[in-house]
Amino acid sequence: MDIKPPATIPFVLYERIRQMIIDGTLAPGQPLREQELERRFGTSRSPIREALRLLQLNGLATHQQRRGFRVVLYTEREIAQIYLLRGELESYAMREVARCDDVEPLLSSLRDACERLTARDPLRDAASHLSIMRDAFLHIVEFVQNPPLAEAVKRLNERCEPLRYNLSRQGADVGALAGYLRRILQALERRDFDGAAAARRECARWILPLVVRAYAAQLNDAQPAR
């Protein structure tokens, strides 16, 4: 499920540690030692532990007996599983649009997303490109009103956040994203739902090697510090 606890001390800590994982301040595989986090945030161990459990539930941290918590460290296979599965689920949502009576609100939203992508330089603002694509695909998922599907995609998106941020930080050329979204929009406009789904899968296969290479570069950069 999508973990959204109230704004308690553990949740505030969770959000701060989460952001440090996403932006690479806490490197993949780095130990999340409770004592160090206590000192960093000036709080007691109990809320730190609760925050770490929330991170584990959302897939951003792992826990092993006698080794404690660590920032999640993905293998290449795990990255492929996450990205390709998300692509399949979002492709399914595009086929489900066929069941919707009035798709114009969705098409209008996607047209706006395409315009915003076109207006941005992908080399200078890769982060915005990636965020716009994430939100556009999520809007399609939410539009078909399938709560289990939306929940699954949101959980996968959360696990993608550190990978997405790192991809933009490594300076990857994500300019092709605009073309994929345009193809998906055009397919939906002509009610070619299978064509839209195929374009989404192709997009997932295209971006996957970029994500894997960027993550490998991040691990290489962080190696001396670990």
UniProtKB/TrEMBL annotation:
Domain of life where this protein originates: Bacteria
All residue ranges annotated as the HTH gntR-type domain in the record: 7-74
Gene3D superfamilies recorded: GntR ligand-binding domain-like, Winged helix-like DNA-binding domain superfamily/Winged helix DNA-binding domain
A GO molecular-function descriptor: DNA-binding transcription factor activity
Pfam families in the record: FCD, GntR
InterPro entries (alphabetical): GntR_C, TF_FadR/GntR_C, Tscrpt_reg_HTH_GntR, WH-like_DNA-bd_sf, WH_DNA-bd_sf
Keyword DNA-binding: yes
Keyword terms, alphabetized: DNA-binding, Transcription, Transcription regulation
SUPFAM superfamilies (UniProt xref): GntR ligand-binding domain-like, Winged helix' DNA-binding domain
PANTHER family in alphabetical order: TRANSCRIPTIONAL REGULATOR, GNTR FAMILY (PTHR43537), TRANSCRIPTIONAL REGULATORY PROTEIN (PTHR43537:SF49)
Protein name: HTH gntR-type domain-containing protein
Species of the source: Bordetella genomosp. 9
